[in-house]
Amino acid sequence: MACPFFVPREILNDGSWPHPSRLPLGAGWTGNCCASGRELAASDTHLREFCNLGYATACPHLPQERDWDAVRFSVVRAGPEQVTICFVCERHHAPIEHGTLTFDVMRETWLDVHVDPRVLTLANCYLEAYRARTRSVSIRAAMD
Which residues 6+ apart lie within 8 Å of 65 measured at CB? Predict the structure, then answer.
């Protein structure tokens, strides 16, 4: 359930997250905050306590008026040609909007787009973390 105002930049593999694959975007991320309407650097504290987790009601940057508090993702179907991801946009811990986004693996492009570019940005990050995890599992399995 990443914050909908979080603009992830790079996976943060510094070993400081106890279970990074359980995080809403499948890993911890560095990035920026766009809650003010401009993209501003997020501090390490904000990244760890708010941006990567969603439901950041204590975040001083979170606007009072907002459509969602968090966006959640999960892989619905994955194959060699496509990966379909389910998304749920939540407000007050309840779903407000949901749907699926399908990524064409061969063409490296989304077949679906969401009207709010923030959802697709977060979905890209979730997909990147998912693909990195599945690659490392495949590599380990090939070594066994």
Answer: none
Give the global pTM. 0.87
Token pair 């760890």: residue: 48
Q: Is the dihedral of CA 61, 66, 69, 75 positive or negative?
A: negative
Question: What number of other Cβ atoms are within 10 A of residue 43's Cβ?
Answer: 12
pLDDT tens by residue, 75-128: 999 999 999 999 999 999 999 999 999 999 999 999 988 999 999 999 999 999
Contacts by 15-18, CB closer than 8 A, 24 or more apart: 16/48
Q: Tell me if 51 sits within 8 A of 60, measured CB to CB.
A: no
